[in-house]
Amino acid sequence: MRKPFVAGNWKMHGSKAMIASLINDLSRAWQQGDKVDVAVCPPFVYIDYVQRTLNNPAIKVGAQNMAAEPEYGAFTGEVSAPMLKEFDCRYVILGHSERRSLFGEDDDLIARKVEVALNARLTPILCVGETLEERDAGITEQVIERQLQAVIDRVGGDAFADIVVAYEPVWAIGTGKTASPEQAQAVHAFIRDKIRLLSAEAADDMIIQYGGSVKPGNAMELFSQPDIDGGLIGGASLVADDFLAICNAAA
Ligand code: PEP
């Protein structure tokens, strides 16, 4: 039995005042940690503040990105895996579509980051997903396959037992358009089947989140699909009641 996992991707949002209120509300109200793993992923500068404000051990913290360099060095503006570990990060989002499209991150760079994260014992949340043009062209599976293959080539299939994959159709992120539960399930099953060819154990264990305009009103139906093991939540993770409702829907 896989334990569902819901993570909030705050993107470039937050202030100390907003975070104090959000984290206090989440800390007080989240009570289903035995059924669902939950994490919040603030911008780097707020990670320590979130850790110090959190008052609920069932809520973990992740980062939204990480350097591909394993240690430290002359890499202005970068943050390394050991730095995230020092601040008790459990997870790191890698390959989000905004990193791919706005910051030029390609499959190879993302695969290198996944390897660095695994070596540092951080759990990567590896985002994959197709654009609307790619879906319309009927190449969704080819795109997902290419994105996964780059990571497989670097870390192998067994490693997916320790990788969370987030299927995020680009056309559904922040747009209010959600993939239907059937559309999402089909891609999730494709991802699991691809890993199953390499490692049945990893395929059974791996968490595959859905991301893209998940809201309290659609979360339960999405999460009830057999291969959807929770969600990566953007906008709705900034509102305590909405994020809690989504986390509870995964229980
Ligand atoms: C995301 O950014 O990962 C995301 C899924 O955003 P939203 O929930 O706002 O669509």
From TrEMBL:
Its signal peptide is: none
InterPro entries linked: Aldolase_TIM (IPR013785), TIM_sf (IPR035990), TrioseP_Isoase_bac/euk (IPR022896), Triosephosphate_isomerase (IPR000652), Triosephosphate_isomerase_AS (IPR020861)
- Where in the cell does this protein reside? Cytoplasm
Give EC number(s), comma-separated.
5.3.1.1
Catalytic activity field: D-glyceraldehyde 3-phosphate = dihydroxyacetone phosphate
Q: PROSITE patterns given for it? A: TIM_1, TIM_2
BP-aspect Gene Ontology terms: gluconeogenesis; glyceraldehyde-3-phosphate biosynthetic process; glycerol catabolic process; glycolytic process
SUPFAM superfamilies xref list: Triosephosphate isomerase (TIM) (SSF51351)
- State the top-level EC class: isomerase
The record's GO molecular-function terms, alphabetically, read: triose-phosphate isomerase activity
Indicate yes or no for the key word Cytoplasm: yes
UniProt-annotated binding residues for substrate: N9, W10, K11, G174, S213, G234, G235
Residues forming the catalytic site: H96, E168
GO CC, sorted alphabetically, is: cytosol
Alphabetical UniProt keywords: Cytoplasm, Gluconeogenesis, Glycolysis, Isomerase
Recorded metabolic or biological pathway in which this protein acts: Carbohydrate biosynthesis; gluconeogenesis; Carbohydrate metabolism; erythritol degradation; Carbohydrate degradation; glycolysis; D-glyceraldehyde 3-phosphate from glycerone phosphate: step 1/1
State the protein's purpose.
Involved in the gluconeogenesis. Catalyzes stereospecifically the conversion of dihydroxyacetone phosphate (DHAP) to D-glyceraldehyde-3-phosphate (G3P).
Membership in a protein family: Belongs to the triosephosphate isomerase family.
Binding partners and assembly: Homodimer.
What PANTHER family does the record tag this protein with?
TRIOSEPHOSPHATE ISOMERASE (PTHR21139:SF42)
Under which name does UniProt file this protein?
Triosephosphate isomerase
Source organism: Sulfurivirga caldicuralii
Q: Which gene encodes it?
A: tpiA
